[in-house]
Write a structure and sequence with these properties.
two-stranded antiparallel sheet; nucleotide-binding; 6 helices; 8 strands; about 220 residues; six-stranded mixed beta sheet; alpha/beta; hydrolase; P-loop_NTPase; Gpn; about 20% strand; Gliding_Motility_GTPase
Amino acid sequence: MSSEYVESSEYVDSTGEEEAGESTALALKILVAGGFGVGKTTLVGAVSEIRPLRTEELLSEAGEAVDDTGGVDQKSTTTVAMDFGRITIRSGLSLYLFGTPGQDRFWFLWDELSQGALGAVVLADTRRLEDCFPAVDYFEHRRIPFVVAVNCFPGARTYAEEDVSRALDLDRGTPVVLCDARDRASGKEVLIRMVEYAGRMHTARLLESVGQAAGSA
């Protein structure tokens, strides 16, 4: 693992609520992104083994002109900074989860939150699939590995993973998984897929850079 991620682990360790005597051998930073009302706060809260930090505020009349609540009419709050949680995947491996705000006007926070991240989960709602396009573009352009997790809302039409991948025009190999953001086991499976995929991507890039260096020697 590069020093960038080790430094990130040290940083997030200082923000977590470690129990006395507990030591984490490896802590990885994961972003949870996606459109407004897609379930980011729900996912972080469902999987976190500590009380999640939330920065939610009530939706205001002033925000009605800029926040599209179509399809999520019952939503009354919104994340204005970030969500934070922690989950232990196995002994010696913990993930620190940073949920990003979904509205356009808070995207200036994304660059700060993405520093040192191993990868990201992009939550998608098939009723508002276009809302996750900005997150997909953001991570693709910055070469940050990500998986698309389709949050299967009750009553929403179910699509196959390949159909979602095609609709989002994802790069070949980018994983698409179906999930229920309310369910801890489902959310944990998404995070495991994310870590596995990011590990493969970073290993491939490292081998590619080593090969290029050897070729130019």
